[in-house]
Amino acid sequence: MNTLVRVLWLAGLLAVSSPHSYAQELEAAPLKTLRAQRVSEPPELDGLVTEAFWEEIDVATDFIQQNPEEGELSPERTEVRVVFDDRNLYFGIICFDSQPQNIVVTQNRRDADLEDTDSLLILLDTFNDDQNAFIFGTSPTGIEFDAQVSKAGQRRGGGGGPARAGGSGGAQRGGSSAFNLNWDGVWKVRSQITERGWESEVVIPFRTVRYKPGETVWGLNLMRNLRRRNELSYWSPISRAFRLTQVSMAGSLSGLETRTHRNLKLLPYVLGGFSQDYNRSDDQGRFERDAGLDLKYSLTSSLTLDATFNTDFAQVEVDDEQVNLTRFDLFFPEKRPFFLENSGFFEFGTTQEVEIFFSRRIGLDDDRNPVPIDAGARISGKAGPYQIGMLNMQTRSVDGAAPANNYSVARFSRELPNRSSIGVIGVNRQATTQFGGSGSYNRTYGADANIGLGRFGNWFNYVAATQTPGLEGSDHTYSSRFEYDDARHQFTLGYMEVGRNFNPEVGFVRRVGFRKPEYFYRYTHYMDSGPIRSIEPHVLSDTWLTLETNEKESGFDHIHLDTRWQNGGRLGIAYNRNFERLDIPFEVHPGIFIPIGRYQFNEWITNFQSDPSAAVYVGGNVAVGDFYSGTIRTLNGRVGLRKGKNLTWVGSWVRNFIELPVGDFNTDLVGLRFNWAFTPKSFLQTFSQYNSRTEQIGHNIRLGLLSTSSTGLFVVYNTTDLSRDFFDPHEVQRRTLSRALFIKFNYLLDY
Questions:
Q1: For position 77, what pLDDT does the model report?
Q2: Helix (H) / strand (E) containing 613
Q3: Would you say 311 and 286 are in contact if contact means Cβ atoms under 8 Å apart?
Q4: Rounded to an integer, what distance in angstroms lies between the CA atom of residue 11 and that of residue 548?
Q5: Is 698 part of a structural domain of the chain?
Q6: Do the Cβ atoms of 522 and 537 come closer than 8 Å?
Q7: Which of 542, 329, 508 is nearest to 427 (CA)?
């Protein structure tokens, strides 16, 4: 017995210590440095790194693999050179490829997912603070991809596996990261495929990014994706425990000469269109016209003022429909550009569970209908070691259905060494019309402290409280969560509590009146050879206890064996154990109520995903199990088709077959996306959905002809139809509920 204990102890010690060896080698390795050089004449932006002066510039090369052969030199050479003048930073990129005919190109639209195509990403830590950065990426077709990184890309929320296979379509559980793909900078890129591989030239204006004036050294890292080998390699090596967003592992870019660039950007828009609501007998259709203005001004090189007047979001894609099989509110993510830009400066709380500030509460009602925004302003950026986010928005009342409100948010945080920070937040909603009620308001206050523990650990803590007239006591929330994440082990242990009267009206809270202990553990075993890249078993457990009696109200236990394949595919099997205590009947479907009682129900799920870069790919999951006192079977599938780099089509269908003693029912959620990217800056996108719960079919068609990253001409057509039997082509009850056609043009005036 003692021998067995020693063997297990030794095996555990080796398992824990082994992934650190390569990470320790990286820590001991000298920092990589690339020197930028000033030029008097900028390079011609043609996508060919052929000018003679490039040969005399310091070169970043010898990229090291993260996958599939960690620590090994990439078999395909990459060269990146950097020059600058008073206005811009220029990158000359050569991605050598011994098989240029086999370069993988799957996308051709701005901000497309670069994981499935050959690509190169540039990370710039412009404050050289190891926490914040900008990312610029491109592909052999010249895609523009850009993003912001804050707080070293730390997640907000625990890890996890697939939740219930039905409902919202088998979405993955897990937290968001401080990675904002919706930031759109003004920059240029040209790429070409050549005999030696593919080449790219990138021009980034200094005033597009924030930085510390006079700073001669920025953080720099470069990541290349060689898709046919499913290979990721870095100039400044990063172990498998981290991603490009781990800013502290970047090398340095020296030799810069930066100065303050204050600039003013105006984005006026005009809009015209026609809409009709067929549910209103008095609505014979109406022509609409509007105009507005967005403004962006650099207060300093690191602090920006954004203002908006008569804000419009006509060009924004509609929400993804969801089917709710739970007792709690659904979470719909923000999609509007003004609120997404610099959103990392306002993050506070736990994603999709308790969010102190949730921007969708501004300008949208509870049914997701637009509420006019008269004006708003935001200041965001850095002042020394402090991150600042301040926002004020004024909405207009809507026909007595929604009062006019003023919304204010102030978020301040102080960055500390080793990914640590402390901060505070304040959120206020104040009714500005009598319809809102005399003195109607809601306020939320909070403080947080995030502490980096060593190389792989983080300790996240926050506390907050709300003020709402008529609600007294039990209006608090707090959370403490430890996370550990290295190349093989990912572990989370946390505790959260939410008071019964906690009411962040400008935030999001899924449920109230509970305390919740949680844990998560994943072990990743990397294969040395064969078609499987890694085997990733993991477990998760969440338990919701009532505040008043400490009785168990809900529980979710999850065990998952997942495998990742060399071609990017996945295959896994999972087991879920659920517990629900109902103190009042729960209407799970119109007219079908689950009685009061205690329910424990189990579910088996198998998930699959083929090579996502293939011309035809499939994915989804199949689940069978119990559902309260009955049974559930779920089929969740999706099929994707690609035609070259310009055309993509993705279809999905989630069907739940539910049988209960009180009644049986099915739910369907069907989606169809089509994208035709004529060029990286022009596209036609359609998104059609059917939701059996709402008995509606929606179509969203968008044509975009962009002049810069987010400006140009947009044509948008939306229609909603009533359908009680989507799968019956001869359905006689189908009718149109609403239609709208809008044409919008906005233009960037850059001073």
A1: 97
A2: none
A3: no
A4: 44
A5: yes
A6: yes
A7: 508
Boundary residue ending a domain (679, 699, 734): 679
Task: Report the candidate in 128, 130, 124 with the shortest Cα–Cα distance to residue 148.
Answer: 124
Tell me the two tokens of residue 353: 């569970």
Q: Cα–Cα–Cα angle for 177, 649, 651, nearest 5°?
A: 80
Both structure tokens of 235: 């100039």
CA 159/CA 172 separation, integer angstroms: 9
In terms of domains, do 579 and 642 share one?
Answer: yes
Determine, yes or no, domain membership for 157.
no
**Within a 10 A sphere around the Cβ of 667, how many other Cβ atoms?**
20
Kindly report the average pLDDT of the chain as a whole number. Answer: 88
For residues 505 and 91, what is the distance between their CA atoms, to the nearest angstrom? Answer: 46
Based on the fold, state whether residues 232 and 273 are members of the same structural domain: no
Task: Name the nearest CA neighbour of 105 among 615, 574, 545.
Answer: 615
* pLDDT, average across residues 725-743: 84
What three-state secondary structure class fits 511?
coil
Cα separation, 698 vs 639, in Å, equals 20
Share of residues in the chain with pLDDT > 90 (%): 65
- Residues 611, 625: one domain? yes
Residue 552 lies in a domain: yes
Q: How many domains in the chain?
A: 4
pLDDT at 218: 96
CB 342 within 8 A of CB 334: no
Q: 3-state class of 160 per DSSP?
A: coil
Residue 399 phi, psi dihedral angles, 5° rounding: 45, 40
- How close are the terminal C-alpha atoms of the chain, in Å? 77
Q: What is the DSSP string of 21-43?
A: HHHHHHHHSPPPEEE-EE-SSPP
151 falls within a domain? no
Q: Residue 374's domain spans which residues?
A: 302-514
Q: Please, what's the largest Cα pairwise distance for the chain? A: 85
Neighbours of 565 (CB within 10 A): 18
- The predicted model scores a pTM of 0.87
Each residue of 645-687: pLDDT tens digit?
Answer: 889 999 999 999 999 999 999 999 999 999 999 988 899 999 9
Chain position carrying tokens 């509970």: 514
Judged by average pLDDT, the poorest of 15-24, 130-139, 144-153, 328-337 is 15-24
The pLDDT of residue 170: 32
